[in-house]
């Protein structure tokens, strides 16, 4: 039996990430403008880096509690309370994780039994379905459309809910579409979750990157606090992707269950990143707001730029992605992304990487300088002109 044949069928069944693939191809080519990767182009603000260095000077190099430094859990719960008026006990209802990525995996594994279904509005972040499959569950995609601003409705959810449905996994502001959900519509979804007794995993990693209106914290909706596993982190808003730090907030039973997995598989998040995260929450707001203002300018540039090329696109309300339709060019998502990369050296991600309903779109990240974005728009313009 070959080595490949010995790999677990569950793992074999997971397709490779469509984002990483393009990133790898682009990295090997010269002169590529990449709108491919969803990561801030800013370096982590200096005061955050300095707090980590200071911690190292003081010799903070050991494991922390599995749950994370109490100091950090207190800052997290204080910030969530100050922002959304949802209160959590930092000792029992908060878990510091290695990015939202780990929190997502833990949340899903902590609640799913084999065959349980999870409703996932689509297009969605690439890890959602993979994590559900790895946990032995069944992802049930709920397709959304540009016509409805990529917002999921209760009517759609009602059609797909079944006796096996255990949870609903939502991520707003959304990656890849930039969609947000108004409070009223989220409240209707909360009622739906209650009616069907579902757990809601709410990935709010882009909450601070909301450009229009204010973000609604799902756990803050009536009766939702204990039913919701709220996930958030530092990667996007604080430009801290490489630090690998995030967190989960929920009722003590869910947090203890997640910690049960975390304590054996991860032990704890890195202490250096935890120290930096404390500083980010204590003193990072001004720098964060400056970065958000910059993303907002770029967002306008991209919306106007892409529309002026003849591509229809939904104006994103949050995160740092724009998801134009490329149907007008007659090309499929993958073909568009491959040919654009070859012909004009611009890397974008084919929309179907985010689920079937992403076909006909590509994701462009505007976490890139204005000059890069301007060059990318010129090149996309040349490419599209020949095909419209
Ligand atoms: N959730 C969403 C919606 C994301 O877009 C990402 C990263 O792109 C993550 C989670 C993972 O974040 P982290 O760096 O905290 O693991």
From TrEMBL:
Family matches, as InterPro entries: Aminotransferase_I/II_large (IPR004839), AspAT/PAT-like (IPR050596), NHTrfase_class1_PyrdxlP-BS (IPR004838), PyrdxlP-dep_Trfase (IPR015424), PyrdxlP-dep_Trfase_major (IPR015421), PyrdxlP-dep_Trfase_small (IPR015422)
The protein's superkingdom reads: Bacteria
What keywords tag this UniProt record? Aminotransferase, Pyridoxal phosphate, Transferase
Cofactor section: pyridoxal 5'-phosphate
Q: Name one GO molecular function term.
A: transaminase activity
PANTHER family recorded for this chain? ASPARTATE AMINOTRANSFERASE, ASPARTATE AMINOTRANSFERASE-RELATED
Q: What is this protein called?
A: Aminotransferase
**Which species does the entry assign this protein to?**
Sporomusa sphaeroides DSM 2875
